[in-house]
Design a protein that fits this description.
The structure is a single chain. The protein has 506 residues and is α/β, with parallel strands linked by helices. It has helices at 6-16, 29-35, 45-71, 76-96, 109-132, 141-172, 185-198, 230-239, 254-264, 305-340, 389-396, 404-409, 432-435, 452-455, 465-480, 484-500, and strands at residues 177-182, 203-209, 220-221, 224-228, 244-247, 270-274, 288-290, 293-299, 346-352, 358-364, 414-416, 426-427, 430-431, 448-450. The strands form four sheets. It has an eight-stranded mixed sheet. Strands 9-10 form a two-stranded antiparallel sheet. Strands 11-14 form a two-stranded parallel sheet. The longest helix is centred in the middle third of the chain and has 36 residues, at 305-340.
Length: 506
């Protein structure tokens, strides 16, 4: 039997090895060349398909309502009900004939014929229902014919434009998932060939990563180059966009799979285990598919697709609202800082951001200009002589963090997420990533102005390894259990936590 719970295995691994050091990984010349090649921003196929369907429904509904206004239909309310019913039934039929994925929008004549059949079928179904309800005389036949013909033209024209747009985005790589293969040999060769045949438009293969250096792992497999070892994939995925990692290993190689997952789980990517060569057969529902290749879901990128859209909207709305409401406080703080000590109002410091990238985080200056610590190599302690009187107040109340609202608007921070730490921050004379194994897994999502750890008391000084470990554990809980409701809860509890835990902030 195949007993592999990757999430539990990773958690067990972190609990067993709390203080192992991060292995430094460079890239060879070929891997660096691939990683440094310019890449267009990627679009979520799920979001694109969902948005396309929503726009299609809106266009058809507007067509029906406009025709109702121009031609009339007897009973106006019934006409609106019939319009919405036709659109709903048409979309249901169209989706039921597998026209619901991005790949389906690339189809030509086949797509248009299915769309026309679905649109016509919707009129038959809704028309029959209207007649059965004895409401036929209340709906204008001229409007029905005009809606059917005009809607058909709108539908096919929209699909033609969308097909051209999807085709262009696919050619540009925006809708192709940038993918690497972990493993080598015959299994990997069959996997690569299957992807190249069945998912060429959806998957862009970048290369192979394999720890073996013998005949089982040649320098290229099915014309796909070997770019390095699995540990080097971490650096590779931080230098270029990687959306998907497919592991080509036998299901019975449980220890190899777990060792690979323990290295890669810190990355914000989907990780799949290929099942194409396995003799074990499961029900179809046990698999997901990459093209026609069956795979097991090992790890998912957190907060993706529509959840990412919702979080983006939430961040922008909260940031704009907060800037408007708190602008008097920010102006007063800026004046107080300038009156007390010479120097700039703002302080900018590099921190770790999403996927371990560096970001410049803004704060109100709370230290004397000649004592600024840009690397945060020394933690701020109680009665720290470097901190000004205004600085002590704004640090204790977290007013010094308010300029980070601009980081949110620049897409560098979220309102809620793991707090971004300074690059040289230490606990008990150890860098954070040296003190806590799996530390960088907290960077699988965008960092935030406040977070789950902060409202539970893990705010302020982190002078011991236990403190930073507890903060990381809370951050990982947030990532694994994210929801919009959780973000709302954290935002609502943050002001309360500022008062109850102010003793921890210096």
């Amino acid at each position: 039997m195949f007993h592999l719970d990757p999430k539990q295995a990773v958690l067990d691994h972190v609990a067993q090895k709390p203080r192992s050091k991060l292995a430094a990984s460079g890239l060879n010349e070929l891997a660096a060349m691939v990683a440094d090649k310019p890449v267009e921003p990627g679009y979520s196929a799920t979001v694109v398909a969902g948005a396309a369907q929503a726009i299609e429904c809106l266009l058809l509904a507007l067509t029906g309502v406009v025709l109702l206004t121009v031609l009339g239909s007897g009973n106006g309310l019934l006409g609106v009900v019939v319009t919405l019913s036709v659109v709903a039934v048409a979309e249901f039929i169209i989706r039921s004939v597998l026209l619901r994925r991005v790949a389906d929008y690339r189809l030509g004549l086949e797509q248009y014929l299915k769309v026309a059949a679905g649109w016509t079928g919707a009129f038959v179904v809704v028309g029959a229902a209207v007649l059965l309800l004895d409401s036929g005389n209340s709906v204008s036949r001229n409007w029905i014919i005009a809606f059917w013909l005009t809607g058909l033209v709108v539908l096919i024209a929209y699909r033609a434009v969308l097909r051209a747009l999807i085709t262009r985005w696919t050619a540009e790589g925006r809708l192709r998932r940038r993918t690497v293969i972990v493993g080598g040999g015959k299994d990997a060769e069959v996997l690569i060939q299957s992807i190249q045949v069945g998912a060429r438009d959806d998957i862009e293969l970048l290369g192979l990563f394999d720890d073996r250096n013998d005949d089982r792992s040649p320098e290229s497999v099915a014309s796909l180059p070997k770019l390095g070892r699995v540990a080097e994939l971490i650096e590779f995925a931080r230098r270029t966009r990687v959306d998907l990692v497919i592991v080509s290993m036998p299901l019975f190689a449980e220890h190899r799979v777990l060792d690979m997952l323990k290295q890669l789980w810190v990355l914000p990517v989907d990780i799949r285990l290929s099942a194409h060569m396995s003799k074990l057969k499961f029900t179809r529902k046990a698999y997901s598919y990459v093209g026609g290749v069956p795979v097991f879901d090992m790890a998912d990128r957190p907060i993706s697709d529509w959840n990412l859209v919702l979080k983006w909207i939430f961040d922008k709305l909260v940031a704009i609202t907060a800037l408007v409401l708190l602008s008097p406080v920010m102006i007063a703080t800026a004046i107080a800082i300038k009156l007390e000590s010479p120097g700039p109002v703002f302080f900018r410091q590099q921190r770790h951001g999403f996927n371990n990238q560096h970001i410049n985080m803004w704060k109100f200056r709370s230290m004397r200009t000649d004592m600024l610590d840009f690397d945060a190599s020394k933690l701020v302690t109680k009665d720290d002589p470097r901190v000004t009187r205004v600085g002590r107040f704004i640090r204790k109340t977290s007013i010094d963090e308010l300029p980070q609202l601009f980081n949110v608007l620049m897409d560098e921070l979220s309102i809620v997420g793991p707090r971004p730490h300074a690059l040289a921050a230490k606990a008990a004379d150890q860098l954070y990533y040296e003190a806590v194994d799996g530390y960088f897994a907290r960077h699988r999502v965008k960092p935030g102005m406040t977070g789950w750890a902060q409202i539970h008391g893990w705010r302020g000084e982190t002078d011991t390894v236990d403190k930073i470990m507890n903060r990381v554990n809370y951050d990982l809980y947030y990532i694994e259990n994210w929801s919009l409701w959780l973000d709302l809860k954290i935002v609502a509890l943050t002001p309360l936590s500022l008062f109850t835990q102010s003793k921890n902030a210096y």
